Amino acid sequence: MADLLWDDVKCFFDLDLAGSLPDVRVPDASVEDWQTVLDLVAEKGWKYQYSERETVLPVPRAEAVLSRPADAGCPDLRVWPTVDVLAIFRFHAADEVDFDVDLRELQGQDRLDVFCDFLREIGRRLGKSLLMDPEGDDGHPVLGFDVEADRVVLLADPQVR
């Protein structure tokens, strides 16, 4: 059974309402949580690419990435849980795992299911909730993985948007 039904949440995936790149985050994270995500990506066999500026490199330990000088630029890790769905992790801070997804790639029930599976895998491994905020509307999550419910849930009323 799907965590969410497309017809119930499609307004949160509308490019005009939510922007094209919503932010997904794990608040109250740690360097260890970042490393857990890196380990999960490798373990799951998801395609990935780590880069610093324009240079593609092997994935370092989370501690090394997060201890880079502020002026070194923000590295990113591109992860494809499926061939046509991309999540871009940005190593802005140790205390919040965050990544972007492109809503153009998440249209329809099948893609929503891929996205929910991805959130659930990360949330279960970390034992923490994940939150998705519309682009530019940080702090107002519309859906996320609820660790207590062990599923992706709505966090906002679709009628309000």
Summarize the structure.
The chain has five helices and nine strands; from the N terminus they run H-H-E-H-E-E-H-E-E-E-H-E-E-E.
What does this entry look like structurally?
- This protein is an alpha+beta fold and 161 residues long.
- The protein has five helices and nine strands.
- The chain has helices at residues 6-9, 15-18, 31-44, 62-66, 109-126; strands spanning 23-26, 47-52, 55-57, 76-82, 85-93, 96-101, 130-133, 143-146, 151-154.
- The protein has a nine-stranded antiparallel beta sheet, covered by helices on one side.
- A hairpin with a 4-residue loop joins strand 8 (143-146) and strand 9 (151-154).
- Helix 3 packs across helix 5 (109-126).
- It is globular.
